[in-house]
């Protein structure tokens, strides 16, 4: 297949690109490199030394003989360029990773809120509109998030996107209807993913676009089979208070002897998936495209759930790291349970990689190797969800 990977220079996009190229697909990356600019804005860098995208693709060609094409396009701002690109290249599939994906970054200030909404919602809408206008019949696979569901304590398992509801009809009878599972986003970033869902629903219903939305949990790990092949193919690996995600942060903190930064009581339960499985899930989703006229296909892309304090205790047992119990900069339930259905990927053949000690140690080893690149002052998560929380965090 000819596949466009939007956001292919990022943490999930780069290993996915390599995996699909390895499988023999013709892969084109469309990326505006905004993530690299955000590193500059924040004064941080990936823990792992990342080469330019051009250099990365050159090394891949040298190692495998396969070409990955790179196109510098901002999908939120360059609508006409995106449309021309699609009309000219007519990809069979489009994988859409190209959004601002950090909840803390989206809550930093009003400017960051506005940027995140403009970038994510316009980018997704531009893509959908350009797909209709060019008449291409590509299967769109979007990376959404488990966070759209919110983390309720109802106790029922979260279904894969849709919820059957019984409603009273005008004549007093009852009718059954399936609705999108109601969203309850916990940050401006997560809110943009909820808005994406409505855009997808409209374009699938109105124009017959074929869309799969992957509600992904927190991705952990760094290497995949392909990124291990050459030091310059290494994946990016975020540790800072905005972009570092919880388990990867704990593993890096353990490697540099920094107390593990648990927010509040650490009672938050979240869904997780290893980067190797994330890449594999995308391949599986591509192999099972919906037909025109089908509703949006929604998969829960996660393999296990864990409570934050249990992860901290596990990493502490493994490495001897201390745990710091910090005031929570976020507005979120201090404790929640989470049960998630993920039968669709299992039935397509996913064999989940679970939190094995070997894999956790591999991440700690990578972090130790590059520990000299860590700026410890960038580890604390300082983006507060509200002014009151900011004052409280400062006081405590
Ligand atoms: P990332 O920030 O590392 O990568 C995103 C890429 O998209 C970057 O290379 C960035 O430059 C590019 N991009 C952003 N806006 C763009 C635009 N307007 N035009 C062109 N390119 C643009 O993020 P990631 O961790 O690789 O996440 C990828 C996707 O997966 C995101 O949509 C995110 O919401 C989703 N996701 C990530 C995780 C996770 O734990 N990392 C979990 C669940 C879902
Ligand atoms: N947390 C800590 N300590 C830390 C960092 C985080 O206790 O040092 C806590 C947070 O308070 C939160 C939980 O860990 O309760 C998860 O935080 P996170 O930063 O790992 O994940 P989140 O903000 O939800 O975002 C990440 C990705 C995002 C993706 C989402 C999937 O950045 O792109 O959509 O995970 S999910 O969480 O399933 O919505």
Automatic annotation (TrEMBL):
Alphabetized Pfam families for the sequence: Epimerase (PF01370)
Origin superkingdom: Bacteria
Pathway(s) of this molecule: Bacterial outer membrane biogenesis; LPS O-antigen biosynthesis
Stretches assigned to the NAD-dependent epimerase/dehydratase domain: 3-293
InterPro entries referenced in this protein's UniProt entry, alphabetically: Epimerase_deHydtase (IPR001509), NAD(P)-bd_dom_sf (IPR036291)
Family: Belongs to the NAD(P)-dependent epimerase/dehydratase family.
Entry protein name: NAD-dependent epimerase/dehydratase family protein
């Amino acid at each position: 297949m000819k596949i466009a990977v939007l956001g292919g220079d990022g943490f999930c996009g780069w290993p996915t690109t390599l995996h699909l190229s390895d499988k023999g697909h013709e892969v084109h990356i469309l990326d505006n490199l905004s993530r690299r600019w955000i590193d500059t804005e924040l004064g941080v860098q990936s823990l792992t030394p990342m080469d330019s995208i051009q250099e990365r693709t050159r090394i891949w060609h040298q190692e495998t003989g396969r070409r990955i094409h790179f196109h510098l396009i901002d999908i939120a701002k360059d609508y006409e360029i995106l449309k021309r690109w699609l009309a000219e290249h007519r990809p069979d599939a489009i994988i859409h990773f190209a959004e601002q994906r950090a909840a803390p970054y989206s809550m930093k200030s009003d400017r960051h809120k506005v940027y995140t909404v403009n970038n994510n919602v316009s980018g997704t809408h531009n893509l959908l509109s350009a797909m209709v206008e060019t008449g291409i019949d590509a299967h769109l696979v979007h990376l959404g998030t488990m966070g759209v569901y919110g983390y309720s304590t109802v106790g029922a398992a979260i279904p894969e996107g849709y919820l059957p509801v019984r409603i009273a009809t005008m004549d007093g009878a009852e009718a059954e209807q399936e609705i999108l599972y109601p969203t309850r986003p916990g940050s401006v970033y997560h809110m943009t993913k909820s808005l994406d869902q409505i855009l997808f629903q409209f374009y699938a219903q109105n124009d017959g676009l074929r869309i799969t939305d992957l509600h992904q949990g927190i991705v952990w790990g760094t290497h995949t089979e392909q990124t291990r092949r050459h030091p310059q193919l290494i994946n990016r690996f975020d540790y800072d208070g905005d972009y570092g995600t919880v388990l990867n942060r704990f593993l890096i903190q353990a490697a540099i002897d920094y107390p593990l930064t648990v927010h509040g009581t650490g009672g938050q339960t979240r869904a997780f998936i290893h980067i190797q499985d994330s890449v594999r899930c995308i391949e599986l989703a591509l192999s099972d495209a919906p037909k025109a006229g089908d509703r949006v296909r929604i998969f829960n892309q996660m393999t296990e759930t864990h409570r934050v304090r249990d992860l901290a205790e596990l990493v502490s047992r493994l490495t001897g790291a201390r745990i710091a119990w910090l005031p929570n900069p976020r507005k979120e339930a201090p404790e929640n349970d989470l049960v998630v259905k993920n039968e669709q990927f299992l039935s397509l053949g996913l064999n989940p990689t679970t939190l094995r000690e070997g894999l956790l140690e591999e991440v700690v080893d990578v972090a130790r190797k590059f520990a000299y690149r860590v700026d410890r002052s960038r580890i604390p998560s300082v983006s507060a969800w509200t002014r009151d929380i900011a004052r409280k965090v400062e006081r405590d």
